[in-house]
Design goal:
Elements: H1 2-40, E1 55-63, E2 66-75, E3 78-88, H2 98-105, H3 117-132
Antiparallel strand pairs: 1-2, 2-3
């Protein structure tokens, strides 16, 4: 009788572990799908930087697994500096050099950094959000 009770406790424990693991996995996959959808739906407005008043602007973009917060400086109708205040990413730190492209071309929708496409998109969107207020 004792061994049947032990076996039952073990089976219930295994079932609970499987159930909890399944719930965690489903939750994680939901987050992954939301992240992919968020990043795929990022688009950029055509901003006339020349009409942005001089100043320093803060912007951010959060796409579940990637987050960027930037400080954008505008002087005489030109972006003169972009500082990355915070960038949470997996393997996307290479994307941080995209700020140089934005400054050089004076536009937000520049080509993404190869190997860091999603982080590039999030950083560009953070810059846009800063300029649009």
């Amino acid at each position: 009788m004792k061994s049947k009770k032990k076996l039952r406790v073990i089976l219930v424990t295994i079932c609970m572990i499987i159930l909890v693991t399944t719930i965690i996995f489903i939750n994680y996959m939901g987050r992954v799908n939301r992240y992919r959808e968020m990043v795929n739906n990022i688009d950029y407005e055509d901003i006339d930087i020349s009409i942005i008043p001089d100043g320093t602007y803060i912007g951010e973009c959060n796409a579940e697994f990637i987050y960027a917060k930037v400080e954008v400086t505008v002087e005489e109708g030109r972006i003169t500096d972009i500082k990355i205040l915070e960038h949470k990413n997996d393997r996307g730190s290479a994307a941080e050099k995209i700020t140089n492209e934005i400054i050089d071309k004076q536009m937000i929708d520049v080509d993404a950094i190869s190997g860091a496409t999603n982080s590039s998109k999030v950083i560009k969107k953070a810059v846009e959000n800063a300029l649009l207020g």
